[in-house]
Amino acid sequence: MLIRYKKNFEKIAMGLLSFMPTEKDLKKLQQSMRQYETDENWQLFLWKEEDIIGIIGVISNDHNNIEIQHVCVNPSHRHQGIGKKMVLALKEVMPDKTIVPTEHTAAFLEKCHRIEEGE
After folding, report:
1. Domain that holds residue 45
2. DSSP assignment of 79-104
3. pLDDT tens over the chain, length 119 residues
């Protein structure tokens, strides 16, 4: 289930975001978290099953597009389709938006698209 980020999820969110190659540096990670907390165009969502096991962060660049900035799944829950579930749930939450990747999330989104097409 996709849930919106709240400040009381900060530690788990930072832990999940730290798996992104672009967020290995603590200062960069803290800067990204601040951006999600203060910029209304940056939105962070957590994926909860029994526990919170994934995170997806987007930026609303304009009225029609949302850019997936971050997508991370706890390593012990990878290769189970959690990332794809997060993207599909995001499409349900924002049905009027087109999801676009960054250079860091493009390969992941392409893989999700291939799975949807049954490749």
Report:
1. 2-116
2. TSSHHHHHHHHHHHHSTTSEEEE-TT
3. 999 999 999 999 999 999 998 899 999 999 999 999 999 999 999 999 999 999 999 999 777 899 999 999 999 999 999 999 999 999 999 999 999 988 888 888 888 766 555 54
Q: How many domains, in total, are found in the chain?
A: 1
Alpha-carbon gap, residue 17 to 45, rounded angstroms: 11
Residues 20, 72 contacting (CB under 8 angstroms): yes
Q: Which residue has the tokens 């992104």?
A: 20
CATH number at residue 20: 3.40.630.30
- What is the pTM (predicted TM-score) of this model? 0.90
- Cβ contact 113:68 at 8 Å: no
Show contacts of 103-106: CB within 8 Å, 24+ apart. 104/20, 104/21, 104/22, 105/68, 105/69, 105/70, 105/71
